[in-house]
Amino acid sequence: MTGKRNGILKVDYYDITSASTSVKQGPSVGKAAIGGPFSLIDHNGKPVTEKDFFGKWTVVYFGFTHCPDICPDELQKLASAVDKIKETSGIEIVPVFISVDPERDTVEQVGEYVKEFHPNLIGLTASPEEIKKTARAYRVYYMKTEEEGSDYLVDHSIVMYLMDPKMEFVKFFGKNNDVDMLTDGIIKEIKQYKKVKA
After folding, report:
1. What family is it from (predicted)?
2. 156 is in an annotated binding site
3. 6, 13, 50, 96: which is deepest, by most CB within 10 A?
4. What is the pairing mode between strands 122-125 and 93-99?
5. Pair 63, 110: CB distance under 8 Å
6. SS3 letters for 59-122?
């Protein structure tokens, strides 16, 4: 209980400790609500939904083709990890790039871009509304910055999402993971998943 005594706000110790304990423990069941239905267009101009990835392990990365350094570095890392995972464990991963700059990232632009990284990399774009909806479902932050004429950058979350064969969220990997950490982390999650499902 909280209350005022002599003009001083009094907070019970129990309230503070129980609140911080519940924050630390987090929800005891269920997964993070990340992911969900989407309706986008791939780099060949074909409509794509999350259902097109059912039955496959997928890693999703949000970025933009005019990104000067971070996106190319992350996609290079993802491409290397995809090859390494197949080499060491035989597991096929579908790498997916979703644009957070739909105004500039046309189907053609995205098509040219994904070619630079991996032959299996799927690039997705769509209308600003669809991108906003998809980014929200994946809890991705993005915002235009430094507008000078038509030249601007997009500040965005730098995260890769590992999605299971039902396109349900398994784990995210941040920028601090190198190729080996990403490779090992994804293999470990998939093995664990298969063990649980067995």
Report:
1. Belongs to the SCO1/2 family.
2. yes
3. 96
4. parallel
5. no
6. EEEEECCCCCCHHHHHHHHHHHHHHHHHHHHCCCEEEEEEECCCCCCCHHHHHHHHHCCCCCCE
Average pLDDT, the chain: 85
Alpha carbon 136 to its chain's center: 11
C-alpha 185/C-alpha 93 separation (Å) is 13
CB burial class (10 A; 0-12, 13-18, 19+) of residue 77? buried
Minimal CA–CA distance to 162: which of 23, 26, 31, 27? Answer: 31
pLDDT digits (tens, 9 = 90+) for 163-198: 999 999 999 999 999 999 999 999 999 999 988 877
DSSP string, 136-153: HHTT--EEEEEEETTEEE
**65 phi and psi, to 5 degrees?**
-70, -20
- Cβ(146)–Cβ(12) below 8 Å: no
Given a contact cutoff of 8 angstroms between Cβ atoms, the answer to whether 55 and 165 are in contact is yes
Q: pLDDT of 39-96, one tens digit each?
A: 999 999 999 999 999 999 999 999 999 988 899 999 999 999 999 999 999 999 999 9
DSSP code for 30: S
67 is in an annotated binding site: yes
